[in-house]
Design a protein that fits this description.
The chain is an alpha/beta fold. The protein contains eleven helices and eight strands. It has an eight-stranded parallel β-sheet with strand order 7-6-5-4-3-2-1-8. Helix 1 runs parallel beside helix 2, helix 5 runs parallel beside helix 7 and helix 7 packs across helix 8. The radius of gyration is 17 Å and the shape is globular. The chain starts with 5 loop residues before the first strand and ends with a helix.
Length: 247
């Protein structure tokens, strides 16, 4: 089964309007034909600007989070319809920083993924283990628990990102072998949940200190279908280099 690669760039809480304009102008000028689908995830104040600047290009825009409700008294939150209205096509659900810093439960991630699907957004569901969980031998149990919960509502379409928490923003990248082992297990679990044929079509990205220097070796793994990039996505040249490593 041939799966078209997908590369996401998560800007997190970085860049101002002028930075975003310069970035989008640069990446539009240099992108050309890309060997992968690409999406940028700016912070909420930049969403409409980035979506407008990238409109008609090969690079989509996505939100970093959404509230499971369509509207209401939820100060500081963003709804699915608001993301769509801003020009988004994708949204991150369950990023490890949301799980850790905002105490998001597996059940809340499931509600968010389903809300995304219901409002026409494609959820990119993030799962991954901490260093303590890996050291205790619980990696696969953690991935199974998070995956089973996130897909309980059966959102379609969706993509997954395996983000070992111990590798996010630390400079410690999973070896290609570690990444492949986790991705293969996730695909096997997906097969149990959705059937082997459906599981074979799902894109599973790797996230965790990805850069242009290690991307090609990671992408060579058979069950790895692209990347969710953090720090390296803040530089359009480095982000494009990672996308091109999927060719």
């Amino acid at each position: 089964m041939t799966r078209r690669p997908l590369v996401g760039g998560n800007w997190k809480m970085h860049l101002l309007r002028a930075d975003a304009v310069a970035y989008c102008d640069r990446i539009r000028a240099e992108a050309g034909d890309l060997p992968a689908d690409a999406v940028l995830f700016p912070s909420a104040p930049l969403l409409a600007l980035v979506a407008r600047k990238l409109g008609g290009s090969s690079i989509a825009c996505g939100g970093q989070d959404l509230h499971p409700e369509e509207k209401g008294a939820h100060t500081g939150d963003v709804s699915g319809p608001q993301l769509v209205d801003a020009g988004c096509e994708w949204v991150l659900c369950g990023h490890s920083e949301r799980r850790q810093n905002h105490h998001e439960s597996d059940e809340l991630v499931e509600r968010k993924a389903l809300a995304a699907q219901q409002h026409g957004l494609k959820p990119l569901v993030c799962i991954g283990e901490t260093a303590a969980e890996r050291e205790s031998g619980a990696t696969f149990d953690v991935l199974d628990r998070q995956l089973d919960a996130a897909l309980a509502g059966r959102p379609e379409p969706f993509a997954l990102a395996y983000e070992p928490v111990w590798a996010i923003g630390t400079g410690a990248t999973a070896t290609p072998e570690i990444a492949q082992e986790a991705h293969a297990h996730i695909r096997e679990t997906l097969a149990d949940l959705t059937g082997a044929e459906a599981a074979s079509t799902k894109r599973i990205l790797y996230g965790g200190s990805v850069n242009p220097e290690n991307a090609a070796e990671l992408f060579a793994q058979p069950d790895l279908d692209g990347f969710l990039v953090g720090g390296a996505s803040l530089d359009p040249e480095r982000f494009l280099a990672i996308i091109r490593s999927c060719g």
